[in-house]
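mind reviewing this fold:
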Amino acid sequence: MNYAGYKLTNFNARVDLRSDTVTHPSDGMKDAMINAPLGDDVYGDDPSVNFLQEKVAKLLGKEAALLVSSGTQSNLCAMMAHCQRGEEILTGDHYHVFMDEAGGASVLGGIMFAPLLTQENGGLSIKEIQEKIKPDDEHCAISKMLSLENTHQGRVLDVDEVSTLASCGHKNGLSVHLDGARLMNAIVKLNVDPKAIVANVDSVSLCLSKGLGTPAGSVLSGSAEFIKKAKRIRKLLGGGLRQAGILAAAGVYALDNNIDRMVVDHENAIRLAEQLNSFPQICVDLENVQTNMVFIELNDGVAQHFRQHLLKKGMLIGAGDKVIRLVTHLNSSQNDIDLFVSEVDAFFN
């Protein structure tokens, strides 16, 4: 996601389709946060944090879990726990860990990346994974980890594809991490048990502040030994939080109340895509609208004028000169979608 050019503002949008990170906590979530039993998580005695970590570990079929402040911190803890300096991560060239996390694994961990071509469905090529793994040669970095992503730009990898890619990594001596920032969108789309889709990966990051709608936080899951390493790295990165139960309670509420409702976000994305695709000035690949993301393609020179028109109408969209991502979420209703489309119509017609 491109944040370039965004300025600090207190603008209160009528419709905000920039991301599913823009949601506000519901009244029920706020009540849960206010009433959360608290402790000091650095000492390990915050009952709300401990409950959330146990809940996520059980949900994903892993031994242990760790609450961290963000998805980027979660992935960074995972990469630094799996890899040492001079080792290498194979990952997609359009994946978040490679494109949008400030090179943290390299800057702070001395870890190299070997980017692979991201496939049309958001997956990776088995053949290219095998070709990119370095030989046992002192001139080369040591291939150590495979990092996957699900969903990727709203597209879903199914259980078999994730398992097959993970098996390829394991057979070649790689640990396997899944950036599941929007994993629950994939779970809802596929209608599968969360355990099934992550059964063959060693670690998984789940973001609480995207489609699940919390103010902040992600949870990293894996083996007890792995989480012990990750917790030390979290401290190294300045990620220790004290009365973090306030955030944990929001996470528990989200997992109890905001997963099944994601089907509404997916339906709204399809509604948005179909209506926008009816404009001759907009191109939308409807087959790629699988969860809560819609990518629209505009003619050259239109995007900035389009964005400014919507801004004047109290509507926010993401960056991009030709292709713009629109994201539906729990604060974008069907009426919001229709209102947005009406302003698009006003711009073009």
